[in-house]
UniProtKB/TrEMBL annotation:
One of its GO terms (molecular function) is peptide transmembrane transporter activity. This is Solute-binding protein family 5 domain-containing protein. Belongs to the bacterial solute-binding protein 5 family. The keyword Transport applies. Its main location: other. InterPro entries: SBP_5, SBP_5_dom. One of its GO terms (cellular component) is cell envelope.
Amino acid sequence: PIPELAESWEPSADASKWTFKLRKGVEFHNGKTLDAEDVVFSINYHRGEESKSSGKSLVTAVKDVKSDGKHTVVFLLEGGNADFPFIMSDYHLAIFPAGTTDFEKGIGTGAFKLVSWEPGVKALTKRNPNYWKEGRGHFDEVETIYINDVSARINALKTGQIDAMNRCERKTFHLLEKISGIKGINLTGTTHYTIPMLSDVPPYDNNDVRLALKLTVDREQLVKHILRGYGAVGNDHPIAPSQRFYASELPQRKYDPDKARYHMKKAGKLDHTFKLHVSDAAFSGAVDTAVLIKESATKAGIKIDVVREPQDGYWSNVWMKKGWTFS
């Protein structure tokens, strides 16, 4: 992780205790100076019993968090975890001023302050003149418009309604580059697409079922047809081949319908129809991905029903609530 609000961190010998040193002189958007109590409050908010934070699952192993002076925060974990600093860098774990009750105001420490927000429609932000990173925040205002529909996003870019867009559909990327005034940027990223199963919910609580379904995915075909070559084959972990800690020594899991059928038969689920819940809200091309997985699974005699979910409400109503989804 790159130091941001925390300048440094140190583990105990068994990595069950982590001590973070905070950056001094950082201001929230409301003028309050960041201190350790803000971090303690925010983490306790994320991990609270009634919390609806998307980061709650990330901090379930935190047994206690406390301040040690104004600029030191100490985390006590249920057990040793060498990856704890990486977990704490997740964007879901936002830091708020201690005592915050109205989280929709979006009081943070970033380069832009929230001016207005219409959930699912748009957000208007303005530059934070007191941002701790000198020379950053290059625009006076930024309006972010939420356009889930791929065609609508492309039309907005073509007509000048928007100045920039992300998540460009791969099959149209090269066509957009040919339009005068539009420049496409293709960067090696760290985004990874997953198709998670709830391993505590039947039938996905059976390891043979999960393994069989993994073996029905023809990953090379997905990279070729869905990503249009703009990607790399995954291997059931989030570290990309371009990253420093990529586990190149791990055998690549490959498409193997015969082995998939063996494990599904072992689990006693060959006659079962698995529901794969999907929406392009997860990523552009998710629905087409599900269809290809369904087709490749038929060669193993495994039946998959692709359930197309609405884009609106997908993350709150479907993801990690249904047994098998896209992320």
